[in-house]
Write a structure and sequence with these properties.
- The protein is α/β, with parallel strands linked by helices.
- Helix content is 37%, strand content 13%.
- It has one domain: NAD(P)-binding Rossmann-like Domain (Rossmann fold, 3-Layer(aba) Sandwich), CATH 3.40.50.720.
- It has a six-stranded parallel β-sheet with strand order 2-1-3-4-5-6, sandwiched between helices.
- Helix 3 packs parallel to helix 4.
- The termini are far apart.
Length: 231
């Protein structure tokens, strides 16, 4: 079974995902939270050891809008979260590279492709993480370390964060998602198990969108149930 580190326990799916992975027999550690210095990350690396899978889960719930009273908070949030993800990836990735194996998985969001209207800092972070994933895949792939990204749609736990008067795509998402359901920690768990498996040994620099088709949404409601005799 694998040794796994999840970097940001503030992610709404982090603790439940950790419990599912432990239930499957994996050894899972959760980092204390955002990292701000190499020394901090190296100390954690010394304490927990080299993982088989590093899950970058940097999460932002900052609801400051672009024209808000403290729009500079967006820039600070983006910088802090990206710095943290980069430091974890750099130092833990290098340690995995020494052994010639391992993986980095970004617990990302559909917001990498679709603006939120409510949390622009989060969407900016996700867009940057997507390119960071590709750069890490290009660099660490030379040392046998694969980097990939999950793009999850908002879960029920994120309703208060993503509800917006600007963008209503996330309002009542069960009626807008073609599969008519929410993303859960079980979905992230299944994907993590796949990326840990030999079946994913050549998967590097890829993003897996797990949103039930929400990115395809353009209408007020999903299509009504299909009946063959009506065609």
């Amino acid at each position: 079974m694998a040794k796994i580190l999840i970097t940001d326990p503030a992610h709404p799916l982090a603790e439940e995902l950790a419990a599912l992975l432990r239930g499957a027999g994996h050894e899972v550690d959760l980092a204390p939270g955002n990292a701000s210095s190499p020394e901090e990350v190296r100390e954690l690396l010394k304490r927990v050891g080299t993982p088989d899978l590093l899950i970058l889960s940097e999460y932002s719930s900052l609801r400051e809008e672009l024209a808000g009273g403290d729009a500079d908070a967006i820039a600070r949030e983006v910088e802090n979260k990206l710095t943290s993800a980069f430091l974890y990836a750099k130092h833990f990735g290098a340690k995995m590279a020494e052994g010639g194996k391992g993986g980095i998985l970004i617990l990302g969001s559909l917001a990498a492709d679709k603006p939120t209207g409510a949390v622009p800092a989060y969407a900016m972070i996700q867009g940057a993480l997507q390119m960071m994933m590709k750069e890490l895949a290009l660099f660490f792939g030379n040392y046998g370390v694969r980097t990939n990204m999950l793009k999850l749609a908002p879960s029920e736990k994120e309703d208060a964060v993503f509800d917006s008067h600007l963008i209503r795509a996330y309002f009542d998402p069960e009626t807008k998602t073609p599969l008519r359901s929410r993303v859960t920690a079980e979905d992230a768990f299944g994907a993590a198990e796949y990326f840990l498996s030999p079946a994913a040994k050549m998967v590097n620099g890829a993003d897996l969108r797990i949103d039930g088709g929400l990115l395809c949404y353009y209408f007020d409601r999903a299509y009504k149930p299909l009946r063959e005799e009506e065609l």
